[in-house]
Amino acid sequence: MLVGNKETEMYRQVYGHSFPDLYDVARECPLAMLNSNEMFEFPRPLMAKFVYIGGLGMGIGNETRSPLNLDFKKLVDESKSIVVFTFGSIAPAYKMPDDWKEAFWGAFKDLSEHTFIMRYEKPEELVGKLPSNVHAFKWIPQTDLLLQPKTKLLITHGGYNSLQEAISTAVPVVAIPLFGDQPKNGKIIESRHFGVTLKKSEIQRDKIREAIKTVVEDESYKKSITRVRQMIKKRPVSAEDLLIRWTEFVGEFKTLENLKPKAQDLSFIVHHNHNSFRYHNHSSHYNHNRNNHYDYTYDYNCSDW
């Protein structure tokens, strides 16, 4: 089963034992909405039942900037250039190794012309330890900060939502992929010239400093991400319209058998015409990274993307 029995069992406890296996539900689904956008995603062959709705609700091209509270407004008003730093909620920044923290704080200190606004879940740990141009907050209004004209860069773990926010606000990126889909997102950032990526093993003061300088000082990164933002804005059919129209379409016709590929009913072995195959167990590698997202001993090799 591609979907674990535990999830199916949870539904059966609520809806009864006649509830179908979730794998069968997914297989028979008439349509799939993808949280991605073909204007920046890697090109790939997809069937007609897949619809791109990436950026839904972000209002690309029609963003509204909410007023900042006094703390953030004061920082923005007093700054010449702003860099936003956040690693999202799954990999809290306070759990970074100490050598990472020293590398980041040192690089930020070297770039005193910029003000660094950082999400750090335990800011009380950093009292008296940060350079004067670095400010840590338990929470930051990320989108509103990215929409500030003074914001020059986003430093991120490369999560998909952060990537889409960077595009919607046309802010270039320095990405440090940690786990999951982030290495692939980092390759999107590089291939589309939205910014640069650093491997976990490259978190050193000089490399962080040079990555920031490269992206901020080279206007081609800003031009590239702005161009894709405009392409999404002028896309013939918006993500919102696609969602509404396709939902109404499925609601009217219920099933879309004419979009169902015959291969969907074949087993993996028959589908891929395999007479034999070898299984290699990567579980120990995966489990190690899952428990420590910052462990650079197991750096990702994304050369195949």
UniProtKB/TrEMBL annotation:
Where it mainly occurs, coarsely classed, is: membrane
Q: How does it sit in the membrane?
A: Single-pass membrane protein
Q: Which UniProt keywords apply?
A: Glycosyltransferase, Signal, Transferase
Q: Give the residue spans that cross the bilayer.
A: none
According to UniProt, the reaction catalysed is: glucuronate acceptor + UDP-alpha-D-glucuronate = acceptor beta-D-glucuronoside + UDP + H(+)
What are the GO MF terms of this UniProt record? glucuronosyltransferase activity
Which subcellular locations apply to this protein? Membrane
A Gene Ontology term for the protein's cellular component: membrane
A Pfam family cross-referenced in the UniProt record is UDPGT
Q: EC number(s) for this protein? A: 2.4.1.17
InterPro entries named among the record's database cross-references: UDP-glycosyltransferase, UDP_glucos_trans, UDP_glycos_trans_CS
Please give the family membership noted in the entry. Belongs to the UDP-glycosyltransferase family.
Q: What is this protein called?
A: UDP-glucuronosyltransferase
Species: Diploscapter pachys
